[in-house]
Write a structure and sequence with these properties.
Protein name: LacI family transcriptional regulator
Low-confidence stretches: none
Mean pLDDT: 90
CATH class of the largest domain: Alpha Beta
Largest sheet: 6 strands, parallel
Shape: elongated
CATH architecture of the largest domain: 3-Layer(aba) Sandwich
Keywords: DNA-binding, Transcription, Transcription regulation
GO molecular function, one term: DNA-binding transcription factor activity
Organism: Salinicoccus cyprini
CATH topology of the largest domain: Rossmann fold
Number of strands: 12
CATH superfamily of the largest domain: Response regulator
Strand order of the largest sheet: 2-1-3-4-5-11
Length: 324
């Protein structure tokens, strides 16, 4: 009899059994199930291992880049659900998309002796990795990839290709991809490259421009673009940018999708509320948060897990593309 067998019999995770054995927080119902199994099988836990784990704080650090982001909020909801169900609490460290504050957050949370850290990274640098490698607690990255650290990543490149494949059914020219800075590897590089690489395979030319994740800044940049020329199709790197483009079109009397087709990425709730509804790629942000929390709990308990875990996405076809 061991922790894994107890978890199978009780129908709970090994992390939950481990927390029970170390006097952590578990529900009364779960506690009774585990106690019954232990008593039935005369299980005696390893007291030395327990003494090592007794130093835990049952607190996890979560580094969040934005508070006004649908993606970040949905990811945190997934994290919070798993932590709440597991009886752990989170300390949130807000960075405002500042990588220096991300690194400050890693150090600050480690100094507070949290049991592990989940980092929703803006992008990863050598300095990030230096700090992560210097601490003796597990760290899981969400949304970005870095060699040598556990990562939960979205298939941004595949999402880009998926959108380009859909657009190519109806349009062959006068296309614009409105992206963000390539300092964000996932959205700024991989998502853009997925779109452009697919168009390249068909010999389709797609112009590019750059803006910000921020709605107001994107709105201003789109105004400048429209002053020069309104494309037939605008593929926006995020739903936020696409919504800014849609507002500009409405204000300028540009018919969407008859005169201008607009698409985004994200699958925000608002994309089904606006008129016309927005064609987009929906990412599993909540699922990513759940995976991150489940992964950090396993790592804290000394379990081995995959270094990279992928989260899928889905093309959502709505009304903002003119299907000629």
């Amino acid at each position: 009899m061991n922790i894994e067998k107890i978890s199978q019999l009780a129908g709970v995770s090994k992390s939950t059994v481990s927390r029970y054995l170390n006097n952590g927080s578990v529900s009364q119902r779960t506690k009774e199930k585990i106690e019954k199994i232990i008593k039935t099988h005369n299980y005696e836990p390893n007291r030395f291992a327990q003494s090592l784990k007794a130093k835990r704080t049952n607190m996890l650090g979560v580094i969040v880049p934005r508070v006004d982001s649908f993606a970040a909020n949905e990811t945190f909801k997934g994290i919070d659900k798993v932590l709440h169900d597991s009886g752990l609490q989170s300390i949130i460290y807000y960075t405002n998309q500042d990588i220096n504050r991300e690194m400050e957050g890693l150090k600050a949370l480690f100094n507070q002796r949290v049991d592990g850290i989940i980092l929703m990274a803006t992008h990863m640098t050598a300095e990030h990795m230096s700090i992560i490698n210097s601490v003796d607690i597990p760290v899981v990255i969400v949304g970005q990839f870095s060699e040598g650290v556990h990562c939960i990543i979205h298939d941004d490149y595949g999402a880009g290709r998926k959108m380009a494949e859909y657009i190519a059914r109806y349009f062959k020219d006068d296309l614009l991809y409105l992206g963000v800075s390539d300092t964000d590897e996932a959205v700024g590089i991989k998502r853009r490259d997925g779109v452009l690489d697919y168009f390249d395979t068909l010999g389709i030319t797609c112009k590019t421009a750059e803006t910000s994740f921020n709605y107001s800044e994107a709105f201003d940049d789109i105004g400048v673009i429209f002053e020069a020329s309104v494309p037939e199709v605008m593929i926006c790197a995020t739903d936020n940018i696409a919504l800014a483009a849609l507002k500009h079109a409405i204000e300028r009397g540009i018919s969407v999708p008859d005169e201008l087709s607009i698409t985004g990425f994200g699958g925000y709730n608002t994309t089904n509320i606006v008129t016309p509804t927005l064609t987009t790629v929906r990412f599993g942000y909540f699922e990513a948060g759940e995976k991150a929390a489940e992964s950090i709990l396993k790592l804290i308990d000394g379990e081995r897990i995959s270094m990279i875990q992928h989260v899928g996405n889905e093309l959502i076809i709505n009304e903002s593309v003119d299907k000629k």
